[in-house]
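Operator note (shift B, R.M.): manual run for Arginine repressor requested after the automated queue skipped it. Running by hand, logging everything below so the morning shift can see what happened. Input copied straight from the record, untouched. If output looks odd, do not overwrite the archive copy; leave it for review.
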Amino acid sequence: MQKQERQQYIQTIIEQQVISRQAELVAALQAAGVEVTQATISRDIKEMKLSKVVGENGVAHYQMPSPVSEPNPVNQAAVPVPEINGGDLIKVKSQDQFIAVETVPGYGPMVAMILRKGEFPEVFTAVGDDANVFVVCTDPEAASQLAQRLLAIV
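Run finished. Output pasted below as returned.
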């Protein structure tokens, strides 16, 4: 199957179903008769610029990117940043001005984005992979306070 056709299947599936993890997308594609691997889906997700958003039910799921429009600072400021759900986090460790957060698989990028864009002034930056987030805070005291805040959520 051609990549373009496979990506059309992916778009149709995520527009019709709540798909929270790559494994769910692989299973949905296989149920539609499309044989794929998780690695292929991972590349397709990046290429298609799919993002994870938190739905009304509180469950994060993939969605297609919004159509590109002219930036409007007023509208951008009004876009709410989702909150971190305690069910998304597994473990929090801190040392010096660094925090390591273990998340449910698939939630690392979303948690990192929330820490960067949310109400966390103590966060210098956060980088997330599939199930981990590395957070750099402004100083060791800020890291300790944020780690305690995150542990309270867990």
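Quick read of the result: The chain is about 40% helix and 20% strand. The longest strand covers residues 89-95.
Leaving this for review. - R.M.
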